[in-house]
TrEMBL record:
Protein's name in the database: Cobalamin biosynthesis protein CobD
Organism: Propionicimonas paludicola
Major subcellular site: membrane
Membrane topology type: Multi-pass membrane protein
GO cellular component, one term: plasma membrane
Gene that this polypeptide is encoded by: cobD
Function field: Converts cobyric acid to cobinamide by the addition of aminopropanol on the F carboxylic group.
InterPro entries from the UniProt entry: Cobalamin_biosynth_CobD/CbiB
Length: 323
């Protein structure tokens, strides 16, 4: 009987290849379906209290984790385990779709179509985009590529390596809920507290893995690993996110550009600190950022496959045959 770690590793790699080849499903995406369920449940679970937010996380993340356990338990044969892991991996990854969005932003900027670039980048970021100039649009897109490479590729692969199918699905539920309610505003300041904190915890190790991979991959985009290390060490702490700052600083240092600074969210200005030491990013830097993201993504699937082989060294339970 094959070792479960090898099967998990194979499933992660196949799922990553499927994401690179096809991107997100255009219709009936399971993550979108989860979002609709979460929105419906919020109507009955919401109150401006942290305890209600904690309960919201327990119920929704717990339900998705339970589904992952059931799917994993049902896939007892080696071939079924690989296929189910690959399908779950493809479902939760978003690397190719992220690259397509960034490519579209770069194309609009290269064509000097600033209104179209502003509209396109609004698909990637939650900041106010209508007043951004070309440099601001390019910066917003590059920051999204960096952070979402960690959130939508490195982190799910990491948790898939650690906890298999349940880890893949649970992480995506945690990250989705943070994107839905993890805001410091009047409605979600208390209710979304648990979602934000749990997402920070789930991304702590993956973000640092993503930052390290950006350092290693810097030469792929003509960058210096030492500059990426310097940016992470010296500048990541200025970012309000304990995880986003590490990844964005690593990308900025590797690419030799300067990102970060002041952003507006629903009219509220937030200073995220400067990251990197070069000039403001250009459309060509977005192309380089996508290349760096792909290198980080490829590195993460290899690391995760190796981690899975180490963590899951048991054997699948033998399927009993009734004669």
């Amino acid at each position: 009987m094959a070792r479960t770690g090898v099967l998990t590793a194979a499933g992660l790699m196949l799922g990553w290849l499927a994401d690179q080849a096809f991107g997100d499903p255009q219709r009936g995406h399971p993550v979108a379906g989860f979002g609709r369920v979460a929105t419906a449940y919020e109507r009955v679970s919401y109150a401006d209290r942290r305890t209600n937010g904690v309960l919201n996380e327990v119920v929704l993340v717990g339900a998705v984790t339970g589904l992952g356990v059931a799917l994993s338990s049902g896939a007892r044969r080696p071939f079924a385990r690989v296929c189910m892991t690959a399908l779950a991996t493809w479902t939760v990854l978003g690397g190719r779709s992220l690259a397509r969005e960034a490519e579209a932003v770069a194309a609009h900027l290269a064509a000097d179509d600033l209104p179209a670039a502003r509209e396109q980048v609004s698909h990637l970021v939650s900041r106010d985009t209508q007043a951004l100039d070309a440099d601001g649009v390019a910066r917003a897109a590059l920051e999204s590529v960096a952070e979402n490479t960690s959130d939508a590729v490195v982190a799910p692969l990491f948790w898939g390596a650690v906890a298999g199918i349940p880890g893949l699905l649970a992480y995506r539920a945690i990250n989705t809920l943070d994107a839905m309610v993890g805001y410091r505003n009047d409605r979600y300041g208390n209710f979304g507290w648990a979602a934000a904190k749990l997402d920070d915890l789930a991304n702590w190790l993956p973000a640092r893995l993503a930052g390290a991979l950006a350092v290693v991959a810097a030469p792929v985009v003509g960058g210096e690993p030492s500059q990426a290390v310097r940016a992470i060490v010296e500048q990541s702490g200025a970012h309000p996110s304990p995880n986003g700052g590490v990844v964005e600083a690593g990308f900025a240092g590797a690419l030799g550009v300067r990102i970060g600074g002041r952003n507006s969210y629903d009219g509220v200005v937030e200073d995220r600190g400067e990251l990197g030491y070069g000039s403001a990013p250009t459309p060509s830097d977005l192309v380089r950022a996508n290349r760096l993201a792909l290198a980080v993504s490829a590195g993460s699937v290899l690391v995760s496959a190796g981690l899975a082989a180490l963590v899951h060294r048991g054997r699948l339970p033998q399927v009993r045959r009734h004669r």
